[in-house]
Design brief:
Length: about 280
């Protein structure tokens, strides 16, 4: 009788432990989500203040530093732990591989950078508005905007504000690199402008983090919840040596960047049509 009672109690205890083990990640995610909502609300207030300041004739010189400050608060809430190799160039066109929306807070926390994004993001509630207010450059898919974008990118870099281009044009799972689109690398061919390849990885080469990639039919909500449930998400960022793009045509420049990033990540380069990716493109150079 005692044995039966003990076995029943032990089984109940095991079930409670398993339930708690399942529940803890969701409790963690819920707490982080509340913190993220609060930080976004603060961000919206800051962006409103910055917009008002500009309308009154104030300078926008502090905008990059404020944006970096905000990203540095976002990354710990997301559970991101970053390991960095190399050093970001002060003024360069940054060409990076693209795995997830996480790439944006990761790079944004490491330096005062601007981003090139697809035009559709500008229509997203709150996020699109905030992105526009902090100076994100938008590109219309299939649009003939190259000359105008190159001019705006050059202006940013003259202001010591590096611009990030995810040259694969979409996200992949990080276990391969898609061939880069060379068109917008024309901005890196201007005299005095350096191009800096940057390699991003989540997890390690031996054990990639399969929860980080934002691919296939993933939704932003599903991806965010996966990340928030994890105790931590390890991001490795390798700033490679800058390249003098003025000496190269843009196709050669794109090929050189993709090879250096692929070598740093120890992954193969695959054709754009065959890489495992998310449907909607993030940027379309």
């Amino acid at each position: 009788m005692r044995a039966t009672s003990w076995n029943g109690s032990r089984r109940a205890l095991i079930e409670d432990c398993l339930m708690l083990e399942t529940l803890i990640p969701h409790l963690r995610a819920s707490a982080r989500l509340l913190a993220l909502i609060a930080l976004n609300a603060l961000g919206a207030v800051i962006v409103l203040g910055m917009g008002l300041w500009r309308r009154l004739g104030g300078s926008s010189a502090a905008t990059p530093a404020i944006v970096q400050w905000w990203f540095r608060r976002v990354t710990p809430i997301l559970g991101l732990r970053m390991r960095v190799e190399g050093q970001q160039a002060k003024s360069a066109l940054i060409i990076a591989n693209h795995i997830s929306w996480l790439d944006i807070p990761v790079l944004g926390a490491l330096g005062p950078v601007g981003f090139l994004s697809k035009a559709e993001i500008r229509q997203w509630p709150l996020i699109g508005w905030m992105a526009a207010q902090i100076g994100t450059l938008f590109i219309t898919r299939g649009g003939n905007q190259t000359a105008d974008l190159i001019e705006r990118i050059e202006t940013r870099m003259r202001e010591q504000r590096p611009v990030v281009i995810f040259a694969e044009g979409t996200t992949s799972d990080g276990r391969q690199l898609r061939g880069f689109y060379p068109r917008l690398l024309a901005a890196g061919q201007q005299p005095g402008v350096d191009v800096q390849p940057v390699a991003i990885r989540y997890g390690t080469n031996a054990e990639p983090d399969l929860n980080a990639p934002f691919i296939d039919d993933d939704t932003l909500v599903e991806s965010l919840w996966r990340v928030l449930c994890q105790p931590k998400t390890e991001a490795q960022v390798h700033f490679l040596a800058p390249i003098v793009g003025a000496d190269l045509d843009r196709r050669t420049l794109a090929t050189l960047c993709e090879r250096q990033i692929a070598d740093a990540l120890e992954v193969p380069i695959v054709a754009r049509a065959t890489a495992k990716r998310r449907g909607p493109e993030v940027t379309t150079p």
